[in-house]
Task: inverse folding
C-alpha cells in the first residue's frame, strides 16, 4: 500500500500543456497533452519509441539515455518550445512499486513484469531521469511520478465522477483507490502529512500484485512454483504471477510440457518450439478458448502453425479446458483484489475503471470478473439484474459496482495529476512536493 501524494479527484477544470511518458512494456510512449478545463476538449499528440528488448535486462544508464533521447526526438518532432525559465512540465508514468515520499520522486522497490535493469532498485527514478534529461539539456521539469493505476483512476474520474478505483488487468495487475489521510497509519507522523487537513483524500497505490509474497494464503500449483522460481525475482509478486497477462500463457505452456514429458499428450512428436519460455501470450489462450468449430479445428490449426504439433481430438479438448481454467482463476483473483478494496473502504457502488491487455483482449474476462465480484460481495440475483447497465446480461455491468474502460491513464491521467500538483503549488500547498514546479 503506497501513498501517491495525489490529493483527491480532479475537478475536471484542470488546464495546461504537459509532456507525459509511459515506461511500461515494449515501447516508450510519449505524449503532449493539452488540458482545456473541459473533458471533451483534450488535445493529444503522441508517439511511441521502440525499446530494444536488451534494455529490459541491461544497465540503468542505457534505459535513461533511451528515455531522454526519445523525449528529445519527440520535442523536436512536435516543435515544442521550452526554456530553462519556462520548462515543459512532465508527468512520468512509472508502473512499478515505488515508495514516494514526495509526488516528484519514487524509489523503486523491486522490478516486476520481467524487467531486470541493474542500478535502479532502491534508487529514486526521478533523480536518475532528471540527470539524463539535463545531460541532453532538455528544457523539461519532472512534476509527478505516477503509477498506471492512479493514472487510470484520475483520467477516468476527469470524465466520470462515479469512478472509485483505477485498475490494471494487463501484463501486471494492481489497483488504486482514494482514502482520507487520517486512515493512512504508515505516514501519519510524517511532517508532510501534518501540513494537511486529516480529511484530505489521497490516492493509494495498492501494489496488490505482491499480495501473499509469504505464500501463506493462496493455493498454488507446482507450475506456479516453477514460474516463480524461473522469474528474475523469485518470491516477489506472488499474486500477480497467478493472475496477470504476462503469466497466463506461460502457466499453460508449462502444463503442456509436463503432460508431454509424462507421455500424456503429443506422444512421439517433437515439441521444441513449445520449449521457448513465454512463447504463448494471452490472446493465444483466448483464441483456443473461443474456438467454436465443432472439432476445434481452429485451435488445432493454430497449434500446428505456431508450434508445429498436430493434435488429436482429446488433446484439443484438453487444451481448451486448460486455457479456460487458467483464465477463470486469473479473472476471479482479479475480482478478489477489487472486492478487498470495496470491503475495506465500505464502498457499495461505483465504477472500477480498468485498462490492460487482459481486460481489453480476453473476451470472457469481464463476465467472469463480474460474476466473482458479485459472489464475494454477496449481491443477490435480483440486485444484479435490477442494475444491469448494459441491459444485455453482461455480468461485469450488473450490480452496484461495475467495470468501465479506463480513460488514458498514462497520458491524460499523468497530465491531470501534473496539473493538480502545479495548482497546489500555486496555492502555496507544498505538502508532498519536493520541487517547485518552476
Ligand atoms: C506493478 C504495478 C503496476 C501493475 C500494472 C505491477 O507489476 O508492480 O506498479 O501498477 O504491474 O501495470
Result:
Amino acid at each position: 500500500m503506497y501513498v501517491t501524494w495525489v490529493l483527491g479527484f480532479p475537478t475536471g477544470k484542470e488546464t495546461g500543456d504537459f509532456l507525459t511518458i509511459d515506461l511500461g512494456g515494449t515501447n516508450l510512449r510519449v505524449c503532449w497533452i493539452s488540458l482545456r478545463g473541459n473533458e471533451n476538449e483534450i488535445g493529444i499528440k503522441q508517439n511511441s519509441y521502440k525499446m530494444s528488448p536488451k534494455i529490459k535486462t541491461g544497465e540503468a544508464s542505457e534505459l535513461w539515455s533511451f528515455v531522454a533521447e526519445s523525449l528529445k526526438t519527440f520535442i523536436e518532432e512536435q516543435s515544442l518550445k521550452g526554456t530553462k525559465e519556462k520548462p515543459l512540465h512532465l508527468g512520468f508514468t512509472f508502473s512499478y512499486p515505488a515508495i514516494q515520499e514526495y509526488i516528484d520522486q519514487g524509489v523503486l522497490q523491486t522490478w516486476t513484469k520481467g524487467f531486470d535493469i541493474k542500478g535502479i532498485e532502491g534508487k529514486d527514478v526521478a533523480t536518475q531521469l532528471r540527470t539524463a534529461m539535463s545531460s541532453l539539456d532538455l528544457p523539461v521539469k519532472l512534476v509527478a511520478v505516477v503509477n498506471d493505476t492512479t493514472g487510470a483512476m484520475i483520467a477516468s474520474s476527469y470524465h466520470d465522477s462515479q469512478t472509485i478505483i483505477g485498475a490494471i488487468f494487463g501484463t501486471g495487475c494492481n489497483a488504486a483507490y482514494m482514502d482520507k489521510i487520517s486512515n493512512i497509519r504508515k505516514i501519519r507522523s510524517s511532517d508532510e502529512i501534518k501540513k494537511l487537513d486529516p480529511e484530505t483524500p489521497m490516492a493509494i497505490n495498492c501494489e496488490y500484485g505482491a499480495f501473499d509474497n509469504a505464500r501463506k494464503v493462496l493455493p498454488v500449483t507446482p507450475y506456479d512454483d516453477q514460474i516463480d522460481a524461473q522469474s528474475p525475482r523469485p518470491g516477489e509478486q506472488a499474486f500477480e504471477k497467478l493472475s496477470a497477462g504476462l503469466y497466463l500463457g506461460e502457466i499453460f505452456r508449462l502444463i503442456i510440457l509436463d503432460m508431454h514429458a509424462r507421455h500424456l499428450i503429443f506422444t512421439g512428436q517433437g515439441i521444441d518450439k513449445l520449449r521457448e519460455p513465454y512463447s504463448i501470450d494471452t490472446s493465444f489462450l483466448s483464441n483456443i478458448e473461443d474456438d467454436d468449430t465443432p472439432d476445434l479445428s481452429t485451435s488445432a490449426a493454430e497449434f500446428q502453425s505456431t508450434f508445429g504439433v498436430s493434435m488429436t481430438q482429446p488433446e484439443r479438448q484438453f487444451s481448451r479446458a486448460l486455457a479456460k481454467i487458467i483464465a477463470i482463476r486469473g479473472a476471479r483473483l482479479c475480482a478478489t483484489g477489487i472486492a478487498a478494496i470495496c470491503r475495506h473502504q465500505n464502498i457499495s457502488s461505483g465504477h472500477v475503471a480498468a485498462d490492460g491487455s487482459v481486460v481489453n483482449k480476453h473476451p470472457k474476462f469481464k463476465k467472469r470478473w463480474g460474476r466473482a465480484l458479485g459472489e464475494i460481495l454477496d449481491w443477490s440475483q435480483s440486485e444484479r439484474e435490477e442494475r444491469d447497465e448494459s441491459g444485455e446480461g453482461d455480468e461485469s455491468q450488473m450490480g452496484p459496482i461495475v467495470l468501465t474502460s479506463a480513460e488514458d491513464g498514462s497520458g491524460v491521467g499523468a497530465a491531470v495529476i501534473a496539473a493538480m500538483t502545479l495548482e497546489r503549488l500555486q496555492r502555496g500547498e507544498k505538502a508532498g512536493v519536493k520541487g517547485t514546479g518552476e
